[in-house]
Design a protein that fits this description.
The structure holds two protein chains of two kinds.
Chain A (H helix, E strand, L loop, with lengths): L2 H22 L5 H6 L6 H12 L2 H14 L6 H25 L4 H8 L3 H33 L4 H51 L4 H4 L11 H11 L13 H17 L1 H4 L8 H37 L7 E2 L5 H8 L3 E2 L8 E2 L12 E2 L3 H4 L1 H4 L4 H39 L5 H24 L8 H11 L1 H10 L5 H23 L27 H18 L5 H10 L12
Antiparallel strand pairs in A: 1-3, 2-4
Chain B lengths: L5 H32 L1 H4 L3 E2 L2 E2 H31 L7
Antiparallel strand pairs in B: 1-2
The chains are: A mainly alpha, B mainly alpha.
Chain lengths: 578, 89
């Protein structure tokens, strides 16, 4: 059977599965719609959280980011940053927010800071973070379809939107939870199977996590030593010690990703679906177990794929790949534009070098590290088909989680909470479905007409969540003295400083030419790149909130009681909207 | 309202914070400490093909994070029972 047919069958099967789950897990109440009825087992929730969390970027791009753009060790910021956030989430936020037992993140902020204005500011922050993030996912869906199924980008996006529409509108959080569990299984198989084969081929060790630290088959040379040698030969920095800009920048980058992770609303609301406070604690652990399976495999994929690529381009020292001898996978991916060469010196060979002047490998897209892996390792076609289904599962599951966070903020916080408090449960359920349909259409529109800033959006979403939502939630739980004025000023100050810094270096809304500071590192604050600035925004948020709270009237007595109440587990009812 | 009197509530919260801070110290040391600040020093040590600092940054810190969350969850469960504030089955 040819690859195309096989890919259609595998992807078609997974889609049929998601639709089947959508019909089985319809939502019958707002509680089903917002928190899946509140009865999800912590291990299941962990699995769903892992799929919710791991996006197209984790699945398709991360290994390449580590291997190529961040040159090895520098990519550790993503590995530590996108996992360490769960430790903070498990200890600082999830159990307390679960104890509080409401449906949305802005609802907690509104109640704790006794103010609808605070709730409205939280809704705006949530929508800014989630929309910037969802654009990246919609692009991921379109790209995955167009690469694997050779349909055009727009068609791919429509198919993806239809599938998400099915289970998200019908089932809300309940439908999303069960499809995410299925999507996790698909994506983790699709990620680990090629990695195991490659590890076996290169090192003879089936576990990629150990393979990366092993010797190459038939030699006593360690894989990483070999990799360091071949990259430095071509003028690149040593793979295992290549720092991203500076130690301070790596520190800030990792911290921003960690607290951004803990502050992303679509991740937080997943912990509202478990029955008890202690389930929220352990469920964060399970989520990280399922995430770690991919995140400890990714650096192995990065190192091994980089070595394979280097050895393809420079089969023996000083001897570069002849243009006529390019392997089939190389030619396949040239067609997509992800790989490109240019024989500058006309010697019929492709010189690969760190020097931009003489480098003839003019384009190596980060995504190639994962996408071309099965072909480089000469794996059977069904594995390639599975990688396609995995990439789609990763993008769809994250998009659905984000859309739910957006639509529940609209129907529950804006409509029920502020505009029409007397709306009936049935009407609110309908409103939430309509909000979801609009959110999908809006995200689809942005996917079809990506704004100029789409490329930088996922990294930006972390900075925004880190600087606005995370500090507000943390202060709400750990301090009784923060006032509504303090919280509002803190959120606006934090997100404002972060946006200001990003726009000043990258352009207003990322429009080229509107940056008012020379691009490049010399004007960076402490040498921190804009993507890593969220933690500074968070510090601003904390400082402003404490300062303003000192000079404004203390919170009312009932807020003190609320904080006391969320600090002990006993008496947590199921999550409710009342 | 909390079933604890003011004294007990304070003590419960103090013990929670102290457990949390101990866990966060470990969290900080394995990632920011071993993975970033001390990476060059630890890279002098090699375990198999891995330089130790590099291993912490790309593998070790993640394993420790997982263990930390389960440890915290277990210890908090014990603390809840000691103070009688655990949830009923």
């Amino acid at each position: 059977m040819d690859l195309q047919t096989l890919t259609y069958i595998v992807v078609g099967f997974t889609f049929a599965l998601y639709i089947g789950i959508a019909i089985w897990a319809r939502a019958g109440s707002t509680k089903d719609f917002y928190v899946a009825g509140g009865g999800i087992n912590p291990i299941q929730n962990g699995m769903a959280t892992a799929a919710d969390w791991m996006s197209a970027a984790s699945f398709i791009s991360m290994a390449g980011l580590i291997a190529l753009s961040y040159g090895g060790y520098g990519g550790s910021v993503f590995l530590m940053g996108w996992t360490g956030g769960y430790v903070i989430l498990a200890m600082l936020l999830a159990p307390y927010l679960r104890k509080y037992g409401k449906f949305t993140v802005p609802e907690f902020i509104g109640d704790r800071f006794y103010s609808n204005s605070a709730r409205a500011v939280a809704v705006i922050c949530l929508i800014i973070c989630s929309v910037t993030y969802v654009i990246g996912q919609m692009k991921g869906v379109g790209v995955a379809f167009s690469r694997f199924l050779e349909v055009d980008y727009d068609t791919g996006l429509y198919v993806g939107m239809t599938i998400v529409f099915f289970y998200a509108v019908l089932g809300g959080m309940k439908g999303i939870t069960y499809t995410q569990i299925a999507q996790y299984c698909v994506l983790i198989l699709a990620y680990t199977i090629p990695a195991i084969f490659i590890s076996l081929q290169l090192t003879g060790n089936p576990l990629p996590q150990l393979g990366l630290g092993s010797t190459l088959v038939g030699t006593d040379v360690y894989l990483l030593d070999k990799l360091d040698m071949v990259v430095t030969d071509l003028g690149f920095k040593e793979y295992t010690t290549n720092v991203r800009l500076s130690g301070i920048n790596m520190f800030a980058y990792t911290l921003s990703l960690m607290i951004g992770t803990a502050g992303l609303p679509h991740v937080i609301i997943r912990f509202f679906t478990v029955p008890k406070v202690r389930d929220a604690r352990s469920s964060a652990g399970w989520a990280l177990v399922f995430i770690a399976i991919l995140y400890t495999t990714a650096p192995a994929v990065a190192g091994m794929a980089r070595l394979n690529l280097m050895q393809t381009l420079e089969p023996s020292p000083g001897q570069y790949l002849a243009i006529d001898e390019r392997p089939q996978w190389f030619k396949n991916w040239e067609k997509t534009g992800l790989l490109a060469y240019e024989d500058k010196n006309g010697d019929g060979r492709i010189q690969y070098s760190a020097d931009k002047e003489t480098n003839e490998m003019v384009k190596i897209d980060n995504d190639i590290m994962v996408l071309a892996n099965p072909e480089i390792a000469k794996l059977p076609n069904w594995v390639i088909a599975l990688v396609a289904a995995g990439g789609l599962a990763a993008a769809l599951s994250t998009a659905a989680g984000l859309l739910l966070a957006i639509s529940s903020a609209i129907s529950h916080d804006l409509l029920k909470g502020m505009l029409t408090p007397n709306i009936s449960e049935k009407a609110e359920l309908n409103a939430s479905r309509i909000a979801m349909a609009f959110a999908i259409a809006g995200a689809g529109y942005l996917g079809l007409n990506p704004p100029g800033f789409a490329a930088g959006t996922v990294a930006l979403a972390f900075g925004l969540a880190a600087s606005s939502i995370f500090p507000a939630l943390m202060m709400g739980i750990f301090s009784k003295g923060i006032t509504k004025e303090g919280a509002i000023a803190g959120m606006i100050g934090g997100i404002g400083v972060t946006l200001f810094y990003v726009f000043q270096h990258k352009g207003i809304m990322f429009i080229p030419g509107t940056a008012w500071v020379q691009p490049g590192g010399e004007n960076w604050f402490l040498g921190i790149e804009p993507n890593a600035f969220g933690c500074v925004g968070a510090i601003v948020n904390f400082v402003v909130a404490f300062a303003v709270s000192k000079v404004t009237a203390a919170p009312p007595e009932r807020v003190q009681e609320l904080v006391e109440h969320i600090r002990v587990p006993v008496g947590a009812g199921e999550a409710t909207g009342h | 309202m909390s079933p604890l009197n003011e004294e007990q509530a304070k003590e419960y919260w103090r013990r929670n914070l102290s457990l949390m801070i101990r866990c966060l110290v470990v969290w900080f040391v394995v990632s920011y400490g071993f993975g970033i600040i001390l990476v060059d020093v630890l890279n002098q040590i090699q375990i198999g093909g891995y330089k130790l600092g590099f291993w912490f940054a790309q593998q070790g810190s993640i394993y420790v994070f997982v263990a930390l969350i389960f440890y915290y969850a277990k210890k908090m469960g014990d603390l809840d029972r000691e103070f009688g504030v655990e949830e009923e089955e």
